[in-house]
Design goal:
- The chain has 399 residues and is of the alpha/beta class.
- It folds into two domains: 161 residues, VC0802-like (2-Layer Sandwich), CATH 3.30.2130.30; 220 residues, HUPs (Rossmann fold, 3-Layer(aba) Sandwich).
- 38% of the residues lie in helices and 22% in strands.
- It contains 14 helices and 16 strands.
- Strands 1, 2, 3, 4, 5, 6, 7, 8 and 9 form a nine-stranded mixed sheet that branches.
- Helix 3 crosses helix 4, helix 5 runs parallel beside helix 6 and helix 5 crosses helix 10.
- The longest helix is centred in the middle third of the chain and has 19 residues.
- It binds adenosine-5'-triphosphate and magnesium ion (MG).
Length: 399
């Protein structure tokens, strides 16, 4: 039965909490690969071993593991007995169809009771490969590296390392609620938090039925894609069109964007509490658009006691775009739609909103009522990956 050896990196630094982090990663890997004929996933002396039934699953396994935060790298490996003869034989069998000019062996011993040191093991196995295949040993720039890892009772050999997503296993850092617009930035911000071990709840404000359904469709698609990384997601869809209409009636144009954001944050705070989230996340970066100045951020953040995290705050747009492309959210984000904010956005929003003027303008609005009813009427969707458990819609308002 084939194996995959999974290495983690950052978790290795977690001291006494390490077993808990590793268990979470093991459980996430089990969930992510549940439909691929996996027969076991277990923590094993500083790495994780996954066993699977059939080689046919390898391509899918590769895709799933590459998306699982907390994994530094993973390799398709062959398990063998932990003695030099068995290891050498296994390696030579694995190399039967391989043709290269140069190679090296890299050995790691998890259990130092193995009778050879790592360099001795490398020399022994390397010597046999050289004698059998006639390849040149090149320690600096080998065409092929043969990895050997010895544990207490077994050893693993493999020829290729696949890169993982890095970061921390989803779920170890608590929950956050991300304001998700359907644009390019917020999905990247959500992903960054997922990679830091957070379960990200998503909140989207839409103007349906004043505008088309497109922004919601985009956000559902983005949520589905991000669910590949965090395995379960919750998405709240909040009707915001009527709220914006009220703002347009009561608030002078330059202050409207800041007030939309303050209302969004207050509603998001309610939904964050309801979903056990302890921070809010946005896709803002300093100076990117008029509403994203330091002055405005301060005035916007003052409506909530939750920390407002902005993982992209110091990034350039082209850096964010590259990450969105890598992530796969970019093609969805650029589908044209009318953002609820563009519809009611003034030509010249204030870049230096004054707190006093903003609160004065806001006093014309029934803020508590607006927030209360928007949060209560929010539509909630729960999504899962793998999607064996179909999307469940818990509560849908009539439109
Ligand atoms: P994005 O690409 O994420 O839309 P942006 O550069 O277009 O960002 P803004 O439209 O000013 O910037 O939005 C800033 C942030 O406010 C977004 O990243 C998102 O977190 C939040 N936001 C804006 N519009 C919405 C919305 N309709 N629903 C939920 N969050 C929103
Ligand atoms: Mg936007």
């Amino acid at each position: 039965m084939p194996s995959v050896i999974v290495h983690y990196q950052e978790i290795a630094l977690k001291g006494r909490n390490r077993p808990w982090f590793v268990e979470r990663l093991v459980s996430n890997i089990r969930t992510a690969t549940a439909d691929l004929g996996v027969t076991g996933v277990r923590a094993l002396m500083g790495r994780i071993e996954l066993r699977y039934e059939s080689e046919d699953a390898w391509t899918d396994l590769c895709e799933r593991l590459a998306c699982t935060p907390g994994i530094a790298n993973f390799s398709r490996a062959v398990r063998t007995r932990c003695d030099l003869d068995a290891i050498t034989k296994t390696v030579l069998t694995e190399l039967a169809d391989v043709q290269v000019e140069s190679f090296r062996v890299t050995a790691r011993r998890a259990d130092k009771r193995f009778p050879l040191t790592s360099p001795e093991l490398e020399r022994q196995v390397g010597g046999r490969i050289k004698a059998t295949r006639g390849w040149r040993v090149d320690l600096g720039r080998p065409e092929l590296t043969v990895w050997v890892e010895t544990l207490s009772d077994e050893a693993f050999c493999y020829l290729r390392k696949n890169s993982g997503a890095g970061g921390l296993p989803s779920g170890v850092s608590g929950r956050v609620a991300c304001l998700m617009s359907g644009g390019i930035d917020s999905p990247v911000a959500a992903y960054r938090m997922i990679k830091r071990g957070c379960r990200v709840r998503m909140i989207h404000f839409h103007s349906y039925p004043i505008l088309a359904h497109t922004s919601q469709d985009k956000v559902v698609e983005i949520a589905r894609l991000l669910t590949r990384y965090q395995l379960d997601s919750r998405l709240y869809l909040v009707a915001f069109g009527d709220i914006q209409r009220q703002v347009v009636l009561e608030v002078p144009p330059p202050l409207r964007v800041v007030i939309y954001r303050r209302l969004m944050l207050r509603i998001a705070e309610r939904l964050a509490h309801a979903s056990g989230s302890t921070a809010l996340v946005t896709g803002e970066a300093v100076g990117q658009v008029a509403s994203q100045t330091l002055d405005n951020m301060a005035v916007i953040d003052s409506v909530t006691t939750l920390p407002v995290l902005r993982p992209l705050v110091g990034m350039d747009k082209d850096e964010i775009v590259s990450e969105a492309r890598r992530l796969g959210t970019y093609p969805i984000s650029i589908i044209p739609d009318e953002d609820c904010c563009t519809l009611f956005t003034p030509k010249h929003p204030a870049t230096k909103a004054r707190a006093r003027r903003v609160t004065e303008a806001e006093s014309a609005l029934p803020v508590d009522e607006i927030v209360e009813s928007a949060a209560a009427d929010a539509e909630r969707q729960d999504l899962f990956f793998p999607p064996v458990r179909a999307v469940k819609t818990r509560f849908v308002t009539s439109s």
